[in-house]
Structures are given as C-alpha cells and as structure tokens.
Amino acid sequence: MTEVGNRHPHGTPCWVSLLAHSVEATQEFYSQLFGWEFHPGPHSLGPYVRATLGGKSVAGIGELPGDRHPPIAWTTYFAADDADKTAELIRICGGTVGVGPLDADDAGRLAVASDPMGAVFGVWQARHHRGTEVRGEPGTPVWNELITRDTSLVGTFYSAVFGLEADAVVSTDIDYVTLHLAGRPVGGIHGVGRALPRDRGAHWMTYFEVSDTDAAARQVLELGGSVIRTPRESEYGRLATVADPEGAVFTVIHSRPQPAGGTQ
C-alpha cells in the first residue's frame, strides 16, 4: 500500500467520482465489493459521500438530480494548481467546460469538462481535500485510461492542458499512448477506432485493484452488476471489465509487479 503525499502535482489523475441515481444503493454495492466505508461531504455538491479504506479517501459518490438522466459513469479528475486557469486552457485547446469552476465548500475547487472527442473528465484544485490518499491496496484506483477513437488529437490536448508527456507505443497492432508526469506513468490513452462503443463514445476508464479478479467478477454479478468482458490476462495483470447495477463501467485488476518504468 502506498500513501499519497500532501498534494498531487498538477496534471496527476487525483480522484475518481461517480454520480448515481441512488447513493444509498450504490454505497451498498461498492461497500460489499471493495470494503469501502463512507463519510458525508462536501455538502455544497448535494448528496455526496467520500469512500474510504482504513480512514483514507479513495473515491466519491454523489447523487444525480431526479430530472437528469446522463449515462452513469466514473469520472477521472486531474489535479490543477489553478482550476480557473486550467478551465480557460481547456477551452483554448478545443475542449468544453460543462460545470464550474466552482467551490466544493472548503474541500477544493472543481470543474467538469470534456476533451475534443467528448470524453468527460474533472479538474480538482485541492484545499482541505487532496484527493485519493492511498493506492495499491485492493479497493483503490490504480490506473486511468482514456478509451477514444485515436490518440493523436487528444494526446496533444492533455499534454497542452496538463503538461503531460505522451509516449506512443510503437506498434502496428495497437494505438496506445502512455501519459507521463515528471517521468512517471500516470495514465494511458487507447485508440480503438471503430470499436469505440456507440452508446458511450470516448470515455475515461477507472481501474480498481482487487486481490482476485475472477472472484471480484463473480461478486459483481451476485451484487446485481454485470460483466462486460470476462477475466483475462494482460501484460499488467489479470483484469475484467464490469458494471455496477446502475451501469457505471469500470475495470478490476489484480496487478502483477512491474519493473521500474512500467506503465502501471
């Protein structure tokens, strides 16, 4: 288990948050799956809870207004030194700012935006809440990956907005870029061309660590969720793509140890 320092550097994926129709039912699902406990706030965001493991914050769950019916999805937030300046840069670089920037009580300042291909992401300027406080333990987010049509345009976008270095995989079989910050891999962009899901479009995928991928996939089904892609081996560990009962898609992975400089 790795405890995160006081503040995430600008450009780091620092938090994941989910808006659901029923916070109570969603809490029950993730509590059973990941062992999360929940604490209220920030209150200015409406019904909202922070998920914790061992007292350390790992994710957030909020409630959608009853008259809104967007796709239920996990949102990746990037750390920003100044949310307002970052929001303006997003617009300049061809993205769209849909929410904010606005204050979340004294926890921080946020914005929700989309990149030029339509993938939604968040911006977080930390005050009293720095974001994810622990990683590497089962139940914590360990990787964030953008699923999009191709990597060229959006790779340039995230580099310009967040100062991330885009390192393309040299291959004729895969269109993949690893995003680095200060030489450390912090996320990925996977271009899937026409295989991009029509019902979701471009989107960020959150990977959560688990101790047993197959057992986690079975438990998702038992708890009323679904398995989108069955457990399979990858270069980085055994993983499965699943969805919670409201349809929020995420990946569970039992990571294998990586050599220095690995991408996860």
TrEMBL record:
Q: Which PROSITE patterns match?
A: VOC (PS51819)
Any Pfam family from its record, for instance, is: Glyoxalase_6
Q: Where is the VOC domain?
A: 12-126, 140-255
- What is the recorded name of this protein? VOC domain-containing protein
